[in-house]
Amino acid sequence: MVLPANMVPAEFPDPPVPPKDAATVVLVRDTAAGLEAFLIRRVVGMAFAGGMTVFPGGGVDRRDADADVAWTGPDAAWWASRFSCTEPLARALVCAAVRETFEESGVLLAGPDADSVVSDTRPYATARQALVDRAFSLAQFLADAGLVLRADLIRPWANWVTPEEEPRRYDTKFFVAALPDGQRADGATSEADHVEWRRPADAIAMWQAGERGLLPPTWMTLSDLGELATVADAMAAERVIERVMPKVIRDGSTLRPVLPGDPDYPRAAAHLDPRAGDTLEPR
């Protein structure tokens, strides 16, 4: 795996920028060809990961921590234990996951009660745009619509942190969720110029062929999903959530992300290690 040259700034922040909390949701569905994941390609020119293919997600809004959100399923304490964070942050992350999924894909992980889920989200199109515009909070939307957040429809998957070299950093909790019956994921978001459902192996093959850009968290998530046969397998997976922060190292004239466990990881701490190549000087 290599990084586009423009992914690394000319000057590194010193000290590193503190990462903002964020949530990403991997939507999956079963097909005759196997499990597929929903992917969006971010608009070229966006400040973070422009042109890259990712899963729906975004930063936590302060109102996502609203304790008035109607909620059913695992409580904040359960999520806090899985993500090793405080209960208020865990609650905000789950709410951000549901909100961002609705905003970016039109999929709404909520229902009239604890035993049902919305089957057609078109009546909520105006509310969806209002959430994007931050006209009101997720709690207000759910209350006005008579819906409850279905925390039992998502599962914890991973925790990735943007490398310290980046000027925009996120501490992102990854979730996995099954596409609810009757709903469809769309591309009606200003942040994406293309959306698609892909089998994980096919998405990785397109990246290898240079047809898609993938960041390490997306690539690794697709790789893990590729080992599973069905949505039920993904939802039942018992994941050990560890905080993972890629680092960057020069490999000749190429920028290469390295992960914990890679022999180069210890010597790629918070800068481009000059020992990794002699054709470019560290900046």
Automatic annotation (TrEMBL):
Lineage top rank: taxon: Bacteria
Under InterPro entries, the record lists: NUDIX_hydrolase-like_dom_sf, NUDIX_hydrolase_dom, NUDT19
* Chain intervals with Basic and acidic residues compositional bias: 270-283
- Describe the location of the Nudix hydrolase domain by residue ranges: 18-220
Q: Which cofactor does it need?
A: Mg(2+); Mn(2+)
For this UniProt record, give its keywords in alphabetical order, as a comma-separated list. Hydrolase, Magnesium, Manganese, Metal-binding
Report a single Gene Ontology molecular function.
hydrolase activity, acting on acid anhydrides, in phosphorus-containing anhydrides
Q: What protein name is recorded for this chain?
A: Nudix hydrolase domain-containing protein
Task: State the organism named in the record.
Answer: Actinocrispum wychmicini
